[in-house]
Every structure is written in structure tokens, then in C-alpha cells.
Write a structure and sequence with these properties.
With 199 residues, this protein is of the alpha+beta class. The protein is built from four helices and ten strands; from the N terminus they run E-E-E-H-E-H-E-E-E-E-E-H-E-H. The chain has helices at 36-49, 66-84, 134-147, 161-179, and strands at 5-11, 15-22, 29-32, 52-59, 93-100, 103-110, 116-120, 127-128, 131-132, 150-157. The strands form three sheets. Strands 1-2-4-3 form a four-stranded mixed beta sheet, covered by helices on one side. A hairpin with a 3-residue loop joins strand 1 (5-11) and strand 2. It starts with a strand and ends in a 20-residue tail after the last helix.
Length: 199
């Protein structure tokens, strides 16, 4: 399998973002978005997917965090899509139930080329510190749309909103790790009867 690495950037009147990913990494991250909680979640995404990530984002944080979080998801998704190319030799599907203290969250992934998000996650508070909890969904919507993955995330239960958000990122990370692993039984094949995972 050739090296699976790529870069993506996005510059608008609202944000200036650059991203690099190495799918076959060790989970090293270098993240700076200006949004502390979001940096922490991206660190978790990198660490548990074993995808090395470098993210630099400057956004209109004087307004709110929305554009920075969403556009980072767009750029990360685009970088992943580039790194995966034709998606040959991958396992393609994966799911995991991930526990963290009182919280349990499931993520299921199809690296299909067809973007779709099913989001069954609720928060009991609009904020985690200063971070808007609704932005967790916005990030994964942008990531799924631009990476070309079908992503289902369900929080089964949980009381602490930080834990709920963190299990979403960790569960998606672990599912991504499994879905993107090389398939030793068909290392050069596109895992689809269509012969293509380009959507």
C-alpha cells in the first residue's frame, strides 16, 4: 500500500486553515485552532485513530467558534479523502462501543465514498466550558461530508457532557482506525462490488 498522506487548506473571510494527515502514523498530533476544548478533542481523534495530524487554524473567534470548528472538519475531511485515494485494500467497515466512566457511545463507519451522518447524541447543557456542545455535531458533519464516509454516532447513555463529547471523538477515532486498516486478504482490491468507492 503506498504512503497514505495528504495536505489540505481552506481560506475564507472567516478562517485560514491548513491540515496534514498521515493515515499510517502513530497518533502524533500538533494542533492549534485557538479553541482549547476543540484542540483537546482533535488530540483524542489523532491519538486513538493513529492518524498523525497537524492542524493550524485561525478563525473569527471574536464572533464564536463555529466557523473554525466546521472549517477544520472540512479541511480534515478533504485531507483524509486525498490520502485514501481509491481506498484500495482497506477494511472499509468498522464499529465500536466505547466506554468512558459513566458514558457509553457507539460509532459505526463505512468508508464508502458516500457521505452521510446519523447523529443520535444529546447534551444536557449548551456549553462545555466556553465550547458550544452543538459544534460537536457540526464537526463530524463536515468531516463525514468531505472525507466521503458514512458515519453513525449514538450515545447510549452518559451524565457528564465532557465525557459524552470525548467518547464521540474517541469512538470515531477507533472506528476509523479499524476501517482504514489494510485488509491482508485483499490488499490491492477496492472493497466494493462496484469496483469503486468514489461515491
Amino acid at each position: 500500500m503506498p504512503p497514505r498522506s495528504a495536505e489540505a487548506s481552506r481560506k475564507t473571510k472567516e478562517t485560514d486553515i491548513s491540515v496534514s494527515v498521515h493515515v499510517d502514523g502513530s497518533g502524533k498530533s500538533d494542533i492549534a485552532t485557538g479553541v482549547g476544548f476543540f484542540d483537546h478533542m482533535l488530540d483524542q481523534l489523532s491519538r486513538h485513530s493513529l492518524i498523525d495530524m497537524t492542524v493550524r487554524a485561525k478563525g473569527d473567534l471574536h464572533i464564536d467558534d463555529h466557523h473554525t470548528v466546521e472549517d477544520t472538519g472540512i479541511a480534515l475531511g478533504q485531507a483524509l479523502a486525498k490520502a485514501l485515494g481509491e481506498r484500495r485494500g482497506i477494511m472499509r467497515y468498522a464499529s465500536i462501543d466505547l466506554a468512558m466512566d459513566e458514558t457509553l457511545t457507539r460509532a459505526a463507519i463505512d468508508v464508502s465514498g458516500r457521505p452521510f451522518l446519523v447523529w443520535n447524541v444529546s447534551f444536557s447543557s449548551p456549553k462545555i466550558g466556553t465550547f458550544d456542545t452543538e459544534l460537536v455535531r457540526e464537526f463530524f458533519q463536515a468531516l463525514a461530508q468531505n472525507a466521503g464516509i458514512t458515519l453513525h454516532v449514538t450515545n447510549h447513555y452518559g451524565a457528564n457532557n465532557h465525557h459524552i463529547a470525548e467518547t464521540c471523538f474517541k469512538a470515531v477515532a477507533r472506528a476509523l482506525r479499524a476501517a482504514l486498516e489494510p485488509d491482508p486478504r485483499q490488499p490491492h482490491a477496492v472493497p466494493s462490488t462496484k469496483g469503486s468507492l468514489k461515491g
